[in-house]
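call fold(seq) -> tokens
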Amino acid sequence: MNAAATTHHHTNCLRCGRKLTSTKSRSTGYGPKCAAHIRHSAVDLTDYKPHQVQSARELIEDGAIIPLRSVIFIAVSTDGTETYKTAPTACSCPAGIKGSRCYHQLAARLLLAA
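ret:
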């Protein structure tokens, strides 16, 4: 079975640890209140292009970025074939390796700001 085709359903919120009860919450990994905190987190978006902001929000909504350590996350690539270690200031994706800001970093910033 292709690892990219499988989905992992979380039983506890990745942010607060509470038990997730709805199917949608389990598929994204965040409860409704934590998801709202993430959506409304105060992060400066001026350094990011609109498509990067949209990609970061989709990454979070899809549950494709999960905490690894205090400020380090594992993020899934757009096509689902790769995973990257990411933090608010660095990422192991091709753009991050070149020193560019990527949407993985923005997703990490949004999660930490919430």
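The two ends are 35 Å apart (CA to CA).
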